[in-house]
Amino acid sequence: MLNKVVIVGGGTxxxxxxxxxxxxxxxxxxxTLVESxxxxxxxxxxxxxxxxRHFFEFLGLKEKDWMPxxxxxxxxxxxxxxxxxxxxxxxxxxxxxxxxxxxxxTDWWLQQGPTDRFDKDCFVMSSVIDxxxxxxxxxxxxxxxxxxxxxxxxxxxxxxxxxxxxxFPYAYQFEAALLAKYLTKYSVERGVKHIIDDVxxxxxxxxxxISGVTTAEHGDISGDLYIDCTGFRALLINKALxxxxxxxxxxxxxDSAVALQVPMDxxxxxxxxxxxxxxxxxxxIWTIPLMGRVGTGYVYAKDYLSPEDAERTLRExxxxxxxxxxxxxxxxxxxxxxxxxxxxxxxxxxxxxFVEPLESTGIFFIHHAIEQIAKNFPNxxxxxxxxxxxxxxxxxxxxxxxxxxxxxxxxxxRQDTQYWRDTKTRAIPDSLAERLEMWKxxxxxxxxxxxxxxxxxxxxxMCVLLGMGGIEMKPSPALALSDPAAAERExxxxxxxxxxxxxxxPKAYEYFAQHH
Length: 516
Ligand code: FAD
Prior knowledge:
Blueprint: E1 4-8, H1 12-25, E2 30-35, H2 52-58, H3 63-66, E3 73-75, E4 77-81, E5 89-93, E6 99-100, E7 103-104, H4 105-112, H5 118-122, H6 125-130, H7 159-162, E8 171-173, H8 176-189, E9 193-196, E10 199-204, E11 210-215, E12 220-221, E13 225-228, H9 235-240, E14 245-247, E15 256-263, H10 266-269, E16 275-280, E17 283-289, E18 293-300, H11 307-318, E19 328-331, E20 335-337, E21 341-342, E22 345-347, E23 353-354, H12 362-375, H13 384-411, H14 418-422, H15 430-439, H16 458-468, H17 485-504, H18 508-515
Parallel strand pairs: 1-2, 1-13, 2-9, 4-16, 13-22
Antiparallel strand pairs: 3-8, 4-5, 6-7, 10-11, 11-12, 14-20, 15-18, 15-19, 16-17, 17-18, 20-23, 21-22
Helix pairs in contact: 1-8, 1-12, 12-13, 13-16
This protein binds flavin-adenine dinucleotide.
């Protein structure tokens, strides 16, 4: 039986993998995690997808167990500011799209357009976020959603199995370093051997499989399966095993970021329960409100902007609160390993692949990868089909997200700088070009979006297309012949529910101050 796992790297990827494997296999698995005492983790990665709750559930953790320890908050949406024009914003919320007589409500919205805000007309969450509210009441109950929280039949499913069954209304935002610390404790308490040392060499046998890693002070460490969580360095998968890296730079040119962790009095400031992506002259700035600080950073393309100018713009954006905070400049490697599982090595996290964090997908990639590792854990046969299927599913997730991100730039109306003008002439994946043609006549549905699981349903594509404003969308011709009464009732029901919620939900800060 194979059961010895060596994880190299102790960032978010390393510790999420270690804790998940322990939760999945308990004492039947033997996990060693070695992380450098000198090379730090990337230090960013604080906003997530709503599916992340399945990770914590799988570990048996409740919000009250881990959220206070990680200064965590709720994220109900990504808020896009200035992508259409300065002063404009819209939300991409975690809220299932309603459907009326077989047509998504956004399709009816295009036909009837009660107001010019599709996100407020079609989703209740947009107004809840605008008002800075919590999706939970002070007694802890969740706003009513069309699903049963914690229902038995939902337990133990992977994210891809959940898709379409539920849409949980929020994700989390947390301090990455605190989460790694929390998961370290969780993992070590469950038997993970933790070694702080530098891996100096990765040793291969004569078949080209990893036979062990040599550390500076702890000698050789060997196992059956090696998990590369060394971040952009990709020490095992790309350096030792020489697996090629497929760059996405031709379609996603942002390759740099500068980040600031800005302490703030959140009681005074209040908490917007969302991650904001504010378009800038050569990229965009993220704003992630946590309990006690705001995480912020400028993602940009160095062909258009120098690191010094990016940092200056970011500091101006944040204001005096950032004066004494030091900046973290990060060079981003955008793309993926051709294969993430090669021989007896699986890469998880930044070593496997990364796209800019516009839709907070990095931790989602990690979560998806470790679900698949646990599901496809090998035995002595090392059946190559497992690797083929695993690699296919990882490639699909990343390639799908790449398409979705490219769509943001293609669909953004903004064209006021060279950076934004170039987004309209740059090559895009052929498959996306075909889809865009289709979406001009029919709004995206499950038949016309990227066909493999990649974490995003059709409504996410609709939000981006309708919100970015650079592509004219038309309603389905059939709606001109259809009775609009049911759609009008649905729009009215959303207005009613929005009013009810905004009058009764507590402020997000108030909720956390009481509960955490
Ligand atoms: P790292 O954090 O880089 O960890 C690498 C580990 O490897 C470290 O522990 C290091 O010590 C160890 N190591 C390296 N070399 C050696 C060696 N020789 N020997 C031993 N150990 C070694 N994701 C999201 O989901 N949401 C976001 O909002 C988001 N924002 C991001 C913003 C930016 C600018 C970037 C770059 C990424 C963002 N991500 C985001 C992605 C997210 O940060 C990563 O997916 C996540 O942090 C995982 O990183 P990692 O563990 O793979 O690598």
